[in-house]
Amino acid sequence: MSIIDAFRLDGKVAVVTGANTGLGQGMSVALAQAGAKVVGVARRSCEDTKKLVEADGGEFAEVIADLSDMSAIDVIVNGALAAFGKVDILVNNAGLIKRNDAIDFTEDEWDSVIQVNQKMVFFLSQAFAKQYIKQGHGGKIININSMLSYQGGIRVPSYTASKSAGMGLTKAMCNEWACHNINVNAIAPGYMATNNTAQLRSDSDRSEAIIDRIPAGRWGTPDDMKGAVVFLASAASDYVNGFTLAVDGGWLAR
Ligand code: NAP
């Protein structure tokens, strides 16, 4: 297989959580452009993403599920199998952030973030690993971590806890599942222009301070995720295990 062909995803089925918007939308389009059929998971319609994928000639199915409820796991696995008959790639992209001073942070702000960003990432990955082992051909799991997998952040303690756990979990799952030809890796986006950072970008002082610190001198975009997600979803990364790849315009290099 030529190295360019190793990046192709023809015949693969990719499931992307939080596919309706932001980075999940960008990664869904990228996976479809590389040849995968995409199952978008979201708590509301993925109509815009479906249109973008289909405009490029790709196939897209939607599964509506709220990841704050553990019953979503069966809905997602069964929905993906019903749509395309198998699964090969899981992108654990859905996530939320709650901003509040650590001194005032509430239990709900803690639990709601940990549930979706951490607990669901583990148990949905576990369900996919079981399915990959049953199918007998391995598979890919790609977690979406953060700069706050490395750093502490300000006013986002539950988010930092969940994304720091994401980097540890990526390694822990890799250690037990690599022997089944399951690659567990992650992408750590830097500061990206999506809903997640709308509040931060609307604060001109914070926004300017962030851009000043990014060597590339700009916020990232969903398009910036495309190369990394296709690489980690493809045979080109078959011997890459347990690694978190930063897509951050150089933020971590400072
Ligand atoms: P976003 O536009 O806010 O997207 C987050 C996605 O997660 C949305 O699709 C959202 O659905 C979904 N989601 C949240 N809670 C959910 C739930 N209970 N059930 C189902 N779906 C749920 O932000 P984004 O930047 O694209 O974020 C994508 C991932 O990248 C997240 O894990 C985020 O932490 C991570 N990340 C983002 C940045 C950044 O700078 N933007 C940096 C590092 C990491 P709704 O649209 O319905 O809310």
TrEMBL record:
Protein name: 2-dehydro-3-deoxy-D-gluconate 5-dehydrogenase
Family annotation (InterPro entries): 2-deoxy-D-gluc_3_DH (IPR011286), NAD(P)-bd_dom_sf (IPR036291), Sc_DH/Rdtase_CS (IPR020904), SDR_fam (IPR002347)
Homology family: Belongs to the short-chain dehydrogenases/reductases (SDR) family.
PANTHER family: 2-DEHYDRO-3-DEOXY-D-GLUCONATE 5-DEHYDROGENASE (PTHR42760:SF5), SHORT-CHAIN DEHYDROGENASES/REDUCTASES FAMILY MEMBER (PTHR42760)
GO molecular function: 2-dehydro-3-deoxy-D-gluconate 5-dehydrogenase activity; 2-deoxy-D-gluconate 3-dehydrogenase activity; NAD binding
Pfam families, alphabetized: adh_short
Catalyses which reaction(s): 2-dehydro-3-deoxy-D-gluconate + NAD(+) = 3-deoxy-D-glycero-2,5-hexodiulosonate + NADH + H(+)
EC nos: 1.1.1.127
Organism: Lachnospira eligens (strain ATCC 27750 / DSM 3376 / VPI C15-48 / C15-B4) (Eubacterium eligens)
